[in-house]
Amino acid sequence: MAKGKVGKTVGSLGDYLKEQRTSARLSLRQLADQAGVSNPYLSQIERGLRKPSAEVLQQIAKALRISAEQLYIRAGILSPDDGVGGSVELAILGDTGLTERQKQSLLDVYASFLALNAVDTEATPQAAEAPNNAPTTTETDSDAVTDEG
Asked: Start and end of every HTH cro/C1-type domain (predicted)?
């Protein structure tokens, strides 16, 4: 396995973390202590040599007093194009009852479902339209009035 940067997203994450750390006037050692990670590990993250877990990112975000969601996006865990704000992903990442491996598996499955649905929608655009036997607005309105109570 070749040594070097893990990936562009991780590299930009490391640059961003270093920028945030220096803005907060924290040394590498101070941030590592506050985040509960080792000094060398944090250094490797900042240099783009290691990809931290969502849990470690959350601890770092808390220590820096910044948004964990922003770190997840920079690490490539969340996509900024999610539109809904990544609420499903954030719920998975924030669940303390799951292991890191389980969280990653759920995120992978969720992403694959979204990709599959996007392909299905592009292949059959009429699927997004109402079917011919859908109730009209007058039927729905009258049902809503009679069903109250």
From this structure: 17-71
Domain regions of the chain by residue span: 8-128
Question: CA dist 38 to 30, 31, 32, 92, Å?
Answer: 10, 9, 6, 25
DSSP 92-130: HHH-TTS-HHHHHHHHHHHHHHHHHHHHHHHH-GGGGSP
pTM, rounded to two decimals: 0.56
8-128 topology per CATH: 434 Repressor (Amino-terminal Domain) (1.10.260)
Nearest in space to 37 (alpha carbons), one of 25, 14, 20, 53: 53
Instruction: Note down pLDDT in tens along the chain; length 149 residues.
Output: 444 444 555 558 899 999 999 999 999 999 999 999 999 999 999 999 998 988 899 999 999 998 888 888 888 887 766 555 567 877 887 777 888 788 888 888 888 888 888 887 777 765 455 555 555 554 444 444 544 54
